[in-house]
Write a structure and sequence with these properties.
Rossmann fold; 8-stranded mixed β-sheet; 12 strands; globular; binds cytidine-5'-triphosphate
C-alpha cells in the first residue's frame, strides 16, 4: 500500500527572524509513519520542522510552510492508497513577509493574516483523492462533536481526535488517548504510548481500507 502521512507543525514567516506556528512535536505522525513501514507499506512522510529522527525506510519530504505542504501533497496524493493528515498546519499566514527584521517602533503592532489552504479539506474535491482519507482533530473541548464536524466537512473515512488540554496526553507527551470517529460510530483507545497507539491505528486504517475496497 502507498501511504501519505503529513506531520509536525508548519511555520509561517513574519520576517527573517520570526514566524507563526502551532504546538506540535510531530511524535504521533512519525510514530504512524514508522508503524506503517513496520506493517510492510510504502510511506511518504511530508513533515514540517521537528526535532525527530526520520524513521528508516520512509520517503521523506521536509517542508516549512502550509503552502509548501499543500504543494507537495497535491503533487503526490494521486498515487496514494491511504492518506493520513496528522500535521498541525497553521490556519493563517501573514499576508506579507517583511524582507528585513521588523523593529519595535510602537507599543502595539498589527499583523494581517490570511487563511492557509486547507490541505485535508482539499483532498477529495480539489485533488480528487479516492482512497482512504484520515484526519486528526486536536481539541480542547467537545472532542467527539468537533471531530465529527471535521469528518463530515472534510469527507474523511475516519477522524482521530485527541484532547490536547490533558497534560498526560498533550503536545510533547509520549502517550496519547484518542477517540475514533467513523461515519456510523465512535470508538475509544485508552491511554497508551504513542508507538502503541500508532500500531492500533494502522490496523484500524487498513481495515477501513479493506472494507472500502471490497464494497
Ligand atoms: N489540516 C490541513 N490543512 C490545514 C488545516 C488543517 O490539512 N490548513 C488538517 C490537519 O492535519 C488535521 C485536520 O485538518 O488532520 C484538522 O485540523 P484543524 O486545524 O483542527 O481543523 P480545522 O478544520 O482548521 O478546524 P478548527 O476550526 O478547529 O481549526
Amino acid at each position: 500500500m502507498n501511504v501519505l502521512v503529513t506531520a509536525g507543525p508548519t511555520r509561517e514567516p513574519i520576517d527573517p527572524v520570526r514566524f507563526l506556528t502551532n504546538r506540535s512535536s510531530g511524535k504521533m505522525g512519525y510514530a504512524l509513519a514508522h508503524a506503517f513501514i513496520h506493517a510492510g507499506h510504502h510511506v511518504l512522510l511530508v513533515s514540517g520542522p521537528t526535532d525527530l529522527d526520520v524513521p528508516d525506510y520512509v520517503d521523506f519530504i521536509p517542508v516549512t510552510t502550509a503552502a509548501e505542504m499543500n504543494e507537495v501533497v497535491a503533487q503526490h496524493i494521486g498515487r496514494m492508497d491511504i492518506a493520513v493528515f496528522v500535521a498541525a498546519v497553521a490556519d493563517y499566514t501573514p499576508v506579507l513577509t517583511e524582507a528585513q527584521k521588523i523593529k519595535k517602533d510602537g507599543d502595539r503592532m498589527t499583523i494581517e493574516l490570511v487563511k492557509t489552504p486547507d490541505i485535508l479539506g482539499s483532498a477529495r474535491n480539489t485533488f480528487g483523492f479516492g482512497g482512504t482519507l484520515v484526519g486528526f482533530a486536536a481539541e480542547t473541548e467537545n472532542l467527539e462533536e468537533n471531530a465529527r464536524k471535521k469528518l463530515v466537512g472534510k469527507s474523511c473515512d475516519l477522524v482521530i481526535g485527541n484532547d490536547v488540554s490533558s497534560p498526560a496526553h498533550g503536545f510533547d507527551s509520549d502517550r496519547n488517548e484518542v477517540v475514533l470517529v467513523y461515519p456510523d460510530r465512535t470508538e475509544f483507545i485508552s491511554s497508551a504510548p504513542k508507538s502503541e497507539i500508532a500500531h492500533d491505528l494502522v490496523d484500524v486504517i487498513l481495515e477501513i481500507h479493506r472494507t472500502k475496497e471490497s464494497s
